Amino acid sequence: LYFLSSGAGLRPSRVLYDREHSAFARAEPADFDWDALLADVDLLHLSGISPALGQACADTAIAAARAARGKGVRLSFDVNYRAQLWDAWDSTPRAVLHELVSQAVILFGNGRDIGLLLGHAFDSDGQERDAALAAFEAFPRLQLIAGMRRRPIDVRNHRLSARIDSRAGVAQTEAVMVPDIVDRIGTGDAFVAGVLHALRTARGVEEAAQAGLALACLKHSLPGDACLFGIADIEAFRNGRIDVLR
Questions:
Q1: Contact 213, 189 (CB under 8 A)
Q2: Residue 124 buriedness (CB in 10 A; 0-12 / 13-18 / 19+)
Q3: Which of 31, 98, 158, 190 could join 219 via S-S bond, C-beta 3.0 to 4.6 A?
């Protein structure tokens, strides 16, 4: 649950995350049957929100990643770093995230996230490739690093672009203007969904970057965190039909 508290003049001041003592936050590795969960699975995706919720969740996320690797299941991991969640307990985010990324073949993150993992700051303007190459060197299993870049024009209008680094090169989209934003929540997850769908259907990294960007842009038009668009909507967006809401 997300609670948005308001300050003077009803302007949003901060978001409160209420996950404490939830069944999810209290789950432990032994609560899951990894053999059953990973049967007939070719890719497991984990979000960095999960290990940030507490020691039990961190242990469970690591157990899931190790189980996936042991069964030959590819792991996709979104750093999705939320300092507010990690700071709420006696956490070691760098160590936990390092362990998870070491199991992954696909990483969703940016230079800031890689800097957190490696203890070296990377400039977001111009050092994206340096950060990616450093991550590839540090994590031998890693094959792709995908990220979305947001440049706000004002509170309701942003420019978005997408990038996927591989060991061989870079797929970079043009920036797209997203006007009249309704809700930003869930746009990162929409980007991940678009990228993973394209990769799993053998579209290649160029197509994956475009699909992720399209789905993320479309999600800005919907309230709430769920992305309700499908493949046809992605194609319509990419063909110039920006407003595909029905």
A1: no
A2: middle
A3: 190
Picking from 145, 183, 137, the residue whose alpha carbon sits closest to that of residue 162 is 145
The whole-number pLDDT of residue 244 equals: 45
The DSSP-derived string for 30-42 is GGS-HHHHTTT-S
Instruction: Determine the Cα–Cα distance for residues 135 and 118; give it in Å rounded to an integer.
Output: 8
| Three-state DSSP state, 193 | helix
Contacts of 116-120 with CB under 8 Å at 24 or more apart are: 116/79, 116/81, 117/79, 119/94
Which of 84, 144, 148, 138 minimizes the C-alpha distance to 110? 148
Tokens 């750093």 belong to: 79
Rounded to 5 degrees, what angle do the CA atoms 26, 30, 31 make? 55
Regions of the chain short of the pLDDT cut 50 = 244-246
Render pLDDT for 17-32 as a digit per residue (tens, 0 to 9): 567 778 888 889 999 9
Q: What is the DSSP-derived secondary structure letter of residue 18?
A: -
For residue 246, what pLDDT is reported? 39
Structure tokens at 41: 């699975």
Bridge partners, 75 (sequence order): 44
DSSP 43-110: EEEEETTTGGG-HHHHHHHHHHHHHHHHTT-EEEEE----HHHHTTTT--HHHHHHHHHTT-SEEE--
Closest CA relative to residue 172, chosen from 229, 115, 212, 112: 212
Cα separations in angstroms, 76 against 89, 109, 180 = 25, 11, 31
pLDDT of residue 235: 87
